[in-house]
Design brief:
Helices cover 36% and strands 16% of the residues. The protein is α/β, with parallel strands linked by helices and 329 residues long. A 6-stranded parallel beta sheet has the order 8-7-6-9-10-11, with helices on both faces. Strands 3-2-1-4-5 form a 5-stranded parallel beta sheet, sandwiched between helices.
Length: 329
């Protein structure tokens, strides 16, 4: 995919609007923060004036101090970067209001005067499936490029649909109902899709029989849940492990249960460990998945760890994202 490269963008002495993923805790070891370091180092070396823009949570277009980005400032001080306030404190961000984008540039120009013109860099892959002003409107107004990590996300995830080794297996967990749409979109690409977490609930009575009476030709394999619905059953774990053992390419997105509670982590632990031990080309992604990896010391056991959850699945299903299309313009 021909994305504009950061190394081809003149950033020396410029004010750079760097869109990051900060919808997380202000922890310098958080992967979404560490993923931006290569780009930050490059910009600092080039003498750019770095202005970080991002969102956190769902404040609904109103100021909510509990969702302030101020706690992140100390993390980025070593790059001389300034962290702007939560973009979603203004409804224009989520509404993709072009006037909001124009006014944002003007306001930041007033706040940070004296520099050369602005440039824009998208290092927020996990937010690039959303048509927000900072993702799709800003690149139309400024010279722009993909961040280093963003480009690597596209490169590594593209391997899943560009001549993948088969069988190609998706394992999708978590609780968000919109993952059902991604699952449907991924059926044509995959050889097998294993569904766990709370998602089996959304498939109604089908989930009661699917694992025990599974036909080998079925592409969609839906786990049974334990009685309190906070984990998948032992039988489901064993069926999933057999599919993992056969796969040559695996995409793992989301936990199999409420892993953070004692007594509900068996499905998540066994499935994550089975995938990490596989000889397949394996990718893991999503917010919860990033939290799970250090629990079981699996951070370096995957071929690629994606910072995207919904963005990762949407990219694999559609082979592009609104944020990618905006950068290509």
């Amino acid at each position: 995919m021909n994305l504009p490269k950061l190394t081809d963008l003149n950033v020396a002495g410029k004010r750079v609007l760097l869109r990051l993923d900060l919808d997380t805790n202000p922890d310098p070891n958080d992967l979404r923060i560490k993923a931006s370091e290569e780009t930050l180092n490059y910009l600092k070396e080039k003498g750019a004036q770095i202005i970080i823009i991002a969102h956190k949570g769902r404040p609904g277009g109103k100021v909510d101090e509990s969702l302030s980005l101020k706690p992140f400032q100390t993390i980025f001080d070593k790059w001389g970067a300034k962290v702007e306030e939560n973009l979603r404190f203004d409804s224009g961000e989520e509404n993709n209001d072009p006037e909001y984008a124009k006014n944002l540039i003007k306001r930041l120009g007033d706040v940070y005067p004296g520099g050369a013109s602005f440039a824009y860099i998208n290092e927020a892959f996990a937010s690039s499936h959303r048509e927000s002003a900072s993702i799709v409107a800003l690149p139309k107004l400024l010279s722009h490029a993909a961040g280093f990590r963003f480009a690597k996300e596209v490169e590594n995830l593209s391997k899943v649909f560009e001549n993948p080794q088969r069988p190609l297996l998706f394992i999708i967990g978590g609780a968000k109902k919109d993952k059902q749409d991604y699952i449907k979109s991924l059926e044509s690409l995959s050889d097998k899709i294993l569904v766990g977490g709370r998602l089996p609930e959304y498939y109604g009575d089908m989930a009661l029989e699917s694992v025990r009476n599974k036909n080998e030709q079925d592409k969609l394999v839906i786990a049974n849940l334990v009685q309190d619905k906070e984990d998948i059953t032992l039988n489901s774990i064993e069926v999933f492990e057999k599919e993992i053992a056969k796969a040559k390419t695996i995409v793992l997105a989301g936990p199999m249960g409420k892993y953070e509670e004692k007594g509900h982590g068996q499905g998540t632990e066994r499935i994550f460990k089975a995938v990490s031990s596989s000889n397949a080309f394996k990718i893991v992604g999503g917010g919860d998945s990033l939290l799970i990896l250090p629990i079981y010391n699996l951070e370096d056991k995957f071929d690629w760890v994606s910072v995207g959850g919904g963005a990762m699945l949407e990219f694999l299903a559609k082979r592009t994202l609104p944020g990618i299309e905006a950068l290509k313009q």
